[in-house]
Write a structure and sequence with these properties.
GO terms for molecular function: S-methyl-5-thioribose-1-phosphate isomerase activity. It comes from Myxococcus fulvus. Catalyzes the interconversion of methylthioribose-1-phosphate (MTR-1-P) into methylthioribulose-1-phosphate (MTRu-1-P). Pathway: Amino-acid biosynthesis; L-methionine biosynthesis via salvage pathway; L-methionine from S-methyl-5-thio-alpha-D-ribose 1-phosphate: step 1/6. Its EC number is 5.3.1.23. By secondary structure, this protein is an alpha/beta fold. It has two domains: 128 residues, translation initiation factor eif-2b, domain 1 (Four Helix Bundle (Hemerythrin (Met), subunit A), Up-down Bundle); 225 residues, Translation initiation factor eif-2b, domain 2 (Rossmann fold, 3-Layer(aba) Sandwich). Helix content is 40%, strand content 19%. The strands form five sheets. A seven-stranded mixed beta sheet has the order 8-7-6-9-12-17-18, with helices on both faces. A four-stranded mixed beta sheet has the order 13-10-11-16, covered by helices on one side. Helix 3 runs antiparallel to helix 4. It starts with a strand and ends in a 7-residue tail after the last helix. Bound molecules: 5-S-methyl-1-O-phosphono-5-thio-D-ribulose (MRU). 5-S-methyl-1-O-phosphono-5-thio-D-ribulose binds next to helix 2 and strand 11.
Amino acid sequence: MKVHGKPTRAVWLEPDACAVGIIDQTRLPHAFVTARLETLDEAAHAIRAMRVRGAPLIGATAAYGVWLALRADASDAALTRALAVLGETRPTAVNLHWALEEMRRVLTPLRPVERVEAAKRRAAELCDEDVAINRALGEHGLKLLEAAWEKKGRKGRLEVLTHCNAGWLATVDFGTALSPIYLAHDAGLPVHVWVDETRPRNQGSQLTAWELGQHGVPHTVIADNVGGHLMQHGQVDLCIVGTDRTTAQGDVANKIGTYLKALAAKDNGVPFYVALPSPTIDWRLRDGVREIPIEQRDGSELSDVTGRLASGEVATVRVTPEGSPSANYAFDVTPARLVTALITERGVCPASEAGLRSLFPERAEV
Ligand code: MRU
């Protein structure tokens, strides 16, 4: 996508080929700041501190993190350590483990002297594959948006609600949930997006709103609890969200609060779609509520809010009483029964084991 008219991905190999470039997402929307990652520890820290975040982007950055580690030491022990360090950065998004497993598969049989170039090459390929996947799932999602627009009699605006950030900032490019929205906007559909603010990290109000604004997509930021009201009043035609891990039976882990949106959508007959690249499917799991590990983050993300003061200075302030503890669950699981359909790079399918396996027949029963 473009930032200030310049094509940009969310992660890249720096032109001197000596470092990995990222956008420091903790600085958005107040400042667009890029950073260079030069070591394994810098890559791991960037993921842990959410300078990069979003399931596909975490995976892509981790793949490059393996390369950074091997540049310093390409031995078997160093490879094992890099995979372990990166694998522990965040627990819920399965793309992280998928990407690391892919790096392990490619690199383990090689001699140390061959590994550095191979790691750089495979990480770059994973990034390109992510872009192609997101573009393809966007095309499939676009058909759903076009159908909804027809169903609405092409009147007014096509009202879409999204939660968290599943745009290009959460991937290498295009995004997952936002990919069909960008394509629809570019095709001339009058899309308007209700953007959940997505407390506590505000990925909606800080990242999704920024992205959509950069691309000129009409949008409105709403508090997290507004969606149900809008749905009751016919102001949402459909919901689209991303996911951090989807089980073989179609249960979906996504940013905390997604489940409540899906319940409200079901109650109001609003279609609830989940857009996902296939590396987000965890074929080993079935019951998402019981089996998907849910990240719990520091309570300060809830008690403290960061914003820009009238003076222009960016500051963090406490918004809860001193002494009140906070519980900060980062994700929840939406059971498949609440999901209208899954949008993948191979097409759209019911959120069910049969649906997913019909698109991915090579995934034999495990
Ligand atoms: O905690 P985050 O910001 O990494 O969570 C991101 C999300 O929940 C996204 O919606 C999800 O990764 C889908 S991204 C394409």
